[in-house]
Amino acid sequence: MGEKLMGKEKIEDLVLIRDNAILQNLFTMLQKNGADLEFNRSILNKAYAMAGRYIEDRVLEDSKANRAALASRGVKIYREEYQDDFIIFYHYTSRGYTDKFGVTRDVLRSEISWRLAGYISELGQALKEARQHAKRP
């Protein structure tokens, strides 16, 4: 009952579609960064790679939960369409209707930055807790 309708779909469906776009693009960025780390000769390379893998795992967990939520609501995203390198449209079906959801690249980048900051903060907290746990006698 707490869901609001917006046309044929519910706002919560559109939020899930947006989150799916964010998580997909963030995971792609992390994978490319991980591949770049393989060629980096930094002395902290292993630490960077481990941190990246931790964040990738968290993104995959959230992505899996997102896909399950989409499936439980009967929402299927079936293709991306790029328009003028400015807007990305995600075509989807929901409750028997077919439509498309558009997001600008700037909004996508901003949302990815916020989401990545959250994962980094989570990693920092986990490291802090591990360090405190290791100091205990």
- Beta-strand percentage range: 15-25%
Helix content: 55-70%
Q: What's the assembly state of these chains? A: single chain
Q: Count of DSSP helices?
A: 3
> Structural class, please?
alpha+beta
Mean pLDDT: 87
**Distance N to C terminus:** 52 Å
Radius of gyration: 18 Å
The largest sheet has its strands arranged as 3-4-5
Query: What sort of overall outline do the alpha carbons produce when their principal axes are compared?
Result: globular
Number of strands: 5
What's the number of structural domains? 1
Order of helices and strands, N to C? EEHHEEEH
Spans with pLDDT under 50 lasting ≥5 residues?
1-5
How would you characterize the largest beta sheet?
3 strands, antiparallel
InterPro entries: YhjD-like (IPR058600)
Report on the structure:
There is one protein chain. The chain has three helices and five strands. The protein is an alpha+beta fold. It has one domain (10-75, 105-135). Strands 3-4-5 form a three-stranded antiparallel beta sheet. A hairpin with a 3-residue loop joins strand 3 (75-83) and strand 4 (87-94). The longest helix has 31 residues, at 105-135. It is globular and about 60 Å long. The termini are far apart. The model is unreliable at 1-5 (pLDDT under 50).
